[in-house]
Each structure stands twice: as structure tokens, then as C-alpha cells.
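Q&A FORM
Asked by: J.P.
Topic: structure of Lipoprotein

PROVIDED:
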Amino acid sequence: MIIKKIFFVIFAVILFVSCSDDDSYDYHYELLPIEEAMVPEEFEYGKIYDISVKYIVPDDCYRNSDILYEYDQNARNVAVISLVIESNDCETIDLEQELTFQVHALQASPYIFRFWQGDDDNGEPIYLIVEVPVINLSEQNANEFKGTHTKM
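REPLIED BY: S.T.
REPLY: Here is the structure written out as C-alpha cells.
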């Protein structure tokens, strides 16, 4: 019984020390401009496609970058969002990185992607706009079949 109490006390001390706030740091999230976007020329309805973007990580305080993807009426706004550790010891790296996300083509109308590239002098967003048409091969194949076959 005494060994269990000693074990419990040691465990409680370790747990208390490991959960202390001494290791915490301040951070915020920041958008990083997209330098380049690699998008297919067209989507086939029902298929899944990879889209890749390139961006620059300015210093080593930027961590865990991910894609921010939001709908804006008929368009898709795409940006890179990164966790930024607030520190005075950040080292400039200007490292080009690439992220890839998937799009499932489930609409018949063209996809309009707006890749965020920063803000202009007036604070208005600048976008690289790419429109991707959607083709429906099942309808296309049916129309080709109709054109090549006659009634008997």
C-alpha cells in the first residue's frame, strides 16, 4: 500500500511539472501569399483532382502551414495560413514550400479559383484567378455514340 502511495505522489509531481505554463509561447495565424498554382486544365465530373500551390516561408517562426479554402458565391478562395510563433529570435529563410489539396469535381459549372496573393496599397485582396471547366464524359460519350450509330 505504501508503494502505491509513493507511486501516486511521484506520478502527481511529474504530471504537475509537465503541465506547467513555463513552456508556453505566444502565437498568431497569418496568411502567406501564393506565388504559383498548379491546376488541371479541366475537370471531369465526379473525379478527384490534386491542386498544388507554392508559397514563401519568410522565417523559421512560421510553422504548420495549411490551406484555407472557402466558398465565395461561385468562386473558391484559396490561401495559405500559417501559425507564427511570436519571437525576436526568428531567422530569415525565404524558403519556397508547396502544399497540395484535393477537389472533388461535383458541379457542372466551371470552378473559379481565386488564389490569394496579398493585398494592394488600399488593403484590397489581390487574386490569381483560374477558371477550370468541367466536362461530363458520360454525356460526351453518349452524344458521340448517337452521332456514329443510326437506327435500323
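FOLLOW-UP: The radius of gyration is 25 Å.
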